[in-house]
Amino acid sequence: MGDKSRILGIDLGTTNTCVAHVRNRVAKMVPTDRGNLVLPSVVARSARGDLLVGGIAKDQMLTNPKNTIYGAKRLIGRQFNSRVVQDLLGHFSYEIVEGPSGEAAVRLGDEVYTLPQISSFVLAHVKRISEQFLGGEVTEAVISVPAYYNDNQRTAVKEAGRLAGLDVKRIVNEPTAAALAYGFNRALEQKILVYDLGGGTFDVSVLNLNANVFEVLATGGDTFLGGVDFDNRIVDYVLEEFQAQTRTDLRQSPIAMQRIKTGAEAAKIDLTLIPNVVIELPYIEEHKGRPLDLRIPLSREQLNSLTADLVDRTFAICDKVLGEKGISPREIAEVILVGGQSRMPLVQEKIREHFGRPARKGVHPDECVAQGAALLADSFGSLDSLTLLDALSMPIGIATTGGRFRKILDRNSTIPCGRSFRLPAPRQAGAEIVMDIFQGESDQVVDNEYLGTLRIDGALAGRKIDFKLSEECLLSVVIDAPDKGPTPVELATKDTPETIKEALAEDDRRRQQSSGAPPGEVRSGFLSSIRRIWSG
């Protein structure tokens, strides 16, 4: 490992990316090429064909919205045909398309890029900036991700780092990194809750701190709840008000929409400090040759009314996470706020009401995740290194008859962890043993995220198979093969979630017809063997 002061901690955010490094045991931020401490997570192709990253890409978002990629964090690691991506089509000004392996990808100019490629452009940019700032080559990093990211998304972020020329030593959950920034070397003994409301995602984690041992007791979140959703509520309100005033619908004008989005975000930020603002956008459109100006007043009370349900959703998730471990809100010694949207006065008010104490001051919501990631990176190989016991945010399991989801690894399992069982016989003699792997909270695979398919030689029936989660919460599968010993098995992802689900439904129909039993109640052969092994 090289110079430890040049191992980066990177917070790859939906809206902005931050980078930190540790010098003399203190985590410090790396400024961008513009002297800011945050870099917009934006990638664009200019009219001349140049690739732009960061502030310069965000600057031309108004004039070149179709070739400006933002919010990539919401799409990375997702299948194009997944319900999540299909719901997002049309919500961005750029084109989302199907990638070469069925994943969500984007069109930029005349080329199609995968989301790991887009994120790698941001990571390569911060790598160059860091090298200039630190005065030497940077090859290693710890990158943070939302605690609620699934295996595919974590793998995609690691791939983005590799494409950017970085050896990603560890993927760490954002709330856990924030907790490290708060408690490292402070000899604390307390339970804390990290409330992380960023640009595109919400995470909550409850940790037990004991000196430099950081144990995640429970975690939860929503990868589609963040600052952009608050912005969108303002955008919808402005569009409705403008249409009521002028009978003009601005939704079909990409440039007008981008101006309104920018104005909505600025108004939201201003309302954290002042009670009233006016969103003013001159010459937003023209009607019968005459220019139309947009001028919409917005108060903090109106914003609270527009977004109260979003804030309530975050506290419902907090209550669920605490309830799973039987922890009362009053047992939480400190609440750590992370993410720009956590600055909203309504959020801070609700924190005080809910937990009986104000949120902890002195932890910077924008910088603490990158700083915590850097502290973790710096601890590798140290004698007084910290101990990090993180947890699995969503169960991992396989599809069974009737499209049901059977868990192998449970939510909130302390990682690293694993589970072993014996492989049952294949459905037909001489055939492959096939297992379709999903991750999610639902009992039905249709609502969960497809991770891939295991195709195993039927001759290996009866051998031990291990499902293992690394300390980065990445899944690996190992089989005890004869003459070879423990042998990794690759997850094949050629099948799409839809083909898997159709095959499961067809299998269920076929079994029902042959037995006369209700759908989902017949369990024979391979699937019943799986059930007996796991329930035993």
Helix content: 25-40%
What is the total number of structural domains?
3
Structural class: alpha+beta
Q: Which topology of the largest domain does CATH recognise?
A: Nucleotidyltransferase, domain 5
What average pLDDT do the residues reach? 88
CATH architecture of the largest domain: 2-Layer Sandwich
Largest sheet: 6 strands, mixed
Kindly state the number of beta strands.
28
Going by CATH, the homologous superfamily of the largest domain would be: ATPase, nucleotide binding domain
Strand proportion, as a percent range, falls in 25-35%
The CATH class name of the largest domain reads Alpha Beta
Compute the separation of the termini in Å. Answer: 45 Å
Shape: globular
Poorly predicted parts: 517-536
Radius of gyration: 25 Å
What is the helix tally?
12
Explained architecture:
The protein has 536 residues and is α+β, with helices and mostly antiparallel strands. It folds into three domains: 4-225 and 311-390, 2-Layer Sandwich (Nucleotidyltransferase, domain 5), CATH 3.30.420; 227-305, Alpha-Beta Complex (Actin, Chain A, domain 4); 396-535, Substrate Binding Domain Of DNAk, Chain A, domain 1 (Sandwich). Helices cover 32% and strands 31% of the residues. It contains twelve helices and 28 strands. The protein has helices at 55-59, 83-88, 115-134, 151-163, 174-183, 227-246, 254-270, 300-324, 345-355, 368-379, 497-515, 525-535, and strands spanning 7-12, 16-23, 26-29, 39-40, 43-45, 51-53, 68-69, 95-98, 104-108, 111-114, 140-145, 167-173, 189-197, 202-210, 213-222, 276-287, 290-299, 334-338, 387-391, 396-400, 404-409, 414-415, 417-422, 433-439, 449-456, 464-469, 475-481, 485-489. Strands 1, 2, 3, 4, 11 and 12 form a six-stranded mixed beta sheet that branches. Helix 8 runs parallel beside helix 9. The chain is globular, with a radius of gyration of 25 Å. The two termini are 45 Å apart. The model is unreliable at 517-536 (pLDDT under 50).
